[in-house]
Design a protein that fits this description.
Elements lengths: L1 H11 L7 H33 L6
Helix pairs in contact: 1-2
């Protein structure tokens, strides 16, 4: 997820600003970290529910 968001922020950046590519890189990495942590926490939640017998994987 970080690469598409980085490219998106790079497309929105202005050419005359030298800090915009750096901002795009950090913003893309931040979005990638957010999505990665969300997926990781969802996997942990599913494991816990499966272990408790509440969730059958459907």
């Amino acid at each position: 997820m970080a690469v598409p968001f980085t490219l998106f922020f790079l497309m929105l950046s202005r050419e005359e600003e030298p800090d915009d590519p750096l901002f795009a890189l950090f913003a893309g990495l931040a979005m990638g970290i957010v999505f990665g942590l969300t997926a990781f926490s969802e996997r942990l939640r599913q494991r816990r529910l499966k272990r408790l017998g509440i969730w059958d994987g459907a």
